[in-house]
Design goal:
- By secondary structure, this protein is mainly β.
- A hairpin with a 2-residue loop joins strand 5 and strand 6.
- It starts with 5 loop residues before the first strand and ends in a 27-residue tail after the last strand.
- It has strands spanning 6-8, 11-16, 22-28, 38-42, 45-52, 55-62, 73-77, 80-86.
- It contains no helices and eight strands.
Length: 113
């Protein structure tokens, strides 16, 4: 891969869709060929590199709410990369904890008036 002289942060907007089910992230990366755009998504971040002519667009976004990276969808049209990825349910990986009865018994004491 050739070395690019200038790294540039693309104009970026990130927001929740109208129902708050998905995160939508849009990167303005005009001139970047589709086959050279590299997007990686983790539960808590999105990373982008996209070479275009003599510059390279680069971005790393930390997400405030976890997402499901394997469900992400991306489209690129007229220099705008749009990524939609569903938010992760905070209880999705929750593990039910078994509760054992304690060893000491509780005794009730009555108070006489």
């Amino acid at each position: 891969m050739p070395e690019y002289g200038l790294k540039v942060a693309p104009n970026t907007v990130a927001y929740a869709d109208g129902e708050n089910h998905k995160l939508v992230v849009e990167f303005a990366i005009p001139g970047a060929p589709t086959d050279t755009i590299d997007v990686k998504i983790l539960e808590d971040s999105i990373h982008l590199t996209a070479p275009a002519r003599d510059i390279e667009y680069v971005s790393a976004l930390a997400l405030g709410w976890p997402v499901k990276p394997d469900k992400a969808e991306a489209t690129y049209e007229h220099g705008l990369l749009r990524i939609e990825v569903p938010f992760k349910d905070p209880m999705e990986d929750a593990v039910k904890v078994a509760i054992k009865a304690g060893g000491a018994e509780t005794k009730i004491k009555t108070i006489e008036a």
